Amino acid sequence: MKFKYTKLVSVRREIHNFLHQSYETLQNEAVEIYTGREQCSIAL
């Protein structure tokens, strides 16, 4: 039972880390797109 519980916790941690990384990547991409758009509008 204890083994199952620790495995579950580690899986949860992995999912959490994965989601956190994905979220940060999305944020960075959104910022890049936004700044790119601003530069385009300034150029226009």
Automatic annotation (TrEMBL):
This protein's superkingdom? Bacteria
Q: What is the protein name stated in its UniProt record?
A: Uncharacterized protein
Could you tell me which species this protein originates from?
Answer: Candidatus Similichlamydia laticola
